[in-house]
Design goal:
Elements lengths: L1 E6 L3 H10 L5 E8 L2 H10 L3 E5 L5 H7 L5 E4 L6 H11 L2 E4 L10 H9 L2 H6 L3 E3 L4 H14 L4 E15 L9 H9 L3 E4 L2 E4 L7 E5 L3 E7 L4 H7 L10 E7 L1 H11 L8 E3 L2 E3 L1 H8 L7 H10 L1 E16 L2 E10 L3 H8 L3 H18 L7 E3 L6 H13 L3 E8 L3
Parallel strand pairs: 1-2, 1-4, 2-3, 4-5, 5-6, 6-17, 7-12
Antiparallel strand pairs: 7-15, 8-9, 8-12, 10-11, 11-12, 13-14, 15-16, 16-18
Helix pairs in contact: 1-14, 3-4, 7-14, 8-11, 14-15
Length: 406
């Protein structure tokens, strides 16, 4: 029987903990957070839970709480990744997280590199650290690898996420507003011809014609996939020359307007003799995403404007001397259906359930490779298991293939 510690009981961490409670190979779930209310919620609803208050700023505190754990699932912000990784090495636990950046002390690319640079330490310890698990990154990476395996050489990988889940209750983002605005205001990074290229926030807008949806505007957006896929361009992605991530939707349009007004700046401005950081003010005033069932229910009772969205992974390459494009569309329950199925939001469903599937692979000994790596490194048998289990949760992938005939 496995012991799993879930460090951070927010939207994604709590979803993973709830699903682990149903796993026959899991004996104990250590539910760790600094928020006593979140701990109490897990202890009152899960059969296998053992709550513990932990300050993630301390490696010692994490290691003490994780003693005996086979796996630590990191549901905290990326600034805590290194501490939890160090605690895993100390107690002999495997590791899983959902994001590598942004962090406060180094730039985005370096934040990914320094985690992957711990590969030798984890391999020598006989441990696995699977990073960037969720929907994007996570599911997107597995889809990209599976598509690239169908070509002889890869020219480009593009990931498009368009989110138009919009309720009559003003909720611009279905995850942390502070994280969302920070991501929006950050400089996007793409991989091109062996280099990581930075661009300005909200740059390179493009209107993409999505199957079964129509046209929608997306822009460059900072994300892990171009970094990890760029670092693995030759070893995993058959010489890919270009990798980019783009995002769109009403939330992005709001953030873009705020950015142009200077309201996503981290630089203090003086207002009536007071120094105010615009980003702090906006993050404070933006309503948080509903987390608990009663909060989600109130949103649904007030009504929805739209529950649409698109999740596309596009791979361009060459097969048998001909150009080929593989468009893989992932679909999952919208807000209403996600709440009906699991009492959570659509965001928690897709990201949390996708992350849980990687956790399930750990607790069922499906993952065999040791070291530190992102999901695209998983082998064919492991990816097949992931897709099979995802389909059981109504997370499905439809692929469209276009081949040049001449």
């Amino acid at each position: 029987m496995k012991t799993v510690m879930v460090m951070g009981l927010g939207a994604q961490g709590s979803t993973i903990a709830k699903r682990l409670d149903e796993e026959p190979n899991v004996g104990t779930i250590i539910c760790a957070d600094y928020d006593e209310q979140a701990i109490a919620e897990m202890e009152s609803t899960l059969k296998k839970s053992r709550g513990v208050k932990v300050d993630a700023r301390s490696v010692d505190a994490i290691a003490e709480a994780a003693e005996g754990a086979d796996l630590i699932v990191n549901g905290l912000a990326p600034d805590f990744n290194l501490n939890i990784l160090e605690a895993c090495l100390r107690v002999g636990a495997n590791y899983q997280d959902m994001a590598s950046g942004p962090v406060s002390d180094v730039d985005f690319v370096e934040s990914v590199k320094r985690v992957m640079d711990m590969n030798d330490r984890f391999r020598k310890a006989g441990l696995t650290a699977l990073i960037n698990t969720g929907s994007a990154p996570g599911l997107a990476n597995v889809i990209a690898r599976d598509a690239v395996e169908q070509v002889d050489s890869c020219d480009a990988i593009e990931i498009f996420v368009y989110d138009e889940v919009w309720s009559k209750t003003f909720i611009p983002f279905w995850w942390s507003p502070e994280t969302a605005f920070g991501d929006m205001a950050a400089q996007p990074v793409c991989y091109k011809d062996g280099h990581f290229i930075r661009s300005k926030p909200f740059s390179n807008p493009e209107v993409v014609d999505f199957v079964d949806y129509g046209e929608a505007r997306v822009v460059d957006h900072e994300h892990e996939e171009p970094v990890t896929m760029g670092l693995l361009a030759d070893s995993i992605f058959k010489g890919v020359k270009y990798v980019n991530f783009r995002y769109g939707g009403p939330g992005l349009e709001l953030a873009e307007s705020l950015y142009k007004m200077g309201l996503l700046s981290e630089e203090p401005v003086e207002v009536n003799g007071q120094k105010i950081v615009p980003m702090d003010l906006i993050s404070k005033l933006t309503p948080p995403a509903p987390k608990y069932p009663e909060e989600i229910e109130k949103v649904l009772e007030k009504g929805m404007i739209s529950e649409d969205g698109v999740f596309l992974v596009r791979v361009d390459g060459v097969k048998d001397g001909k150009k080929i494009r593989l468009d893989s569309y992932a679909s999952a329950p919208g807000l209403s259906e996600a709440f009906e199925k699991a009492q959570i939001t659509h965001e928690s469903y897709l990201t949390g359930q996708s992350a849980f599937l990687f956790t399930k692979m750990f607790v069922n000994d499906v993952i065999s490779q040791q070291g530190v790596y992102p999901p695209e490194v998983l082998e064919e048998e492991e990816r097949t298991y992931f897709f099979h289990e995802a389909a059981k949760l109504d997370i499905k992938v439809d692929q469209y293939v276009k081949t040049q005939l001449d």
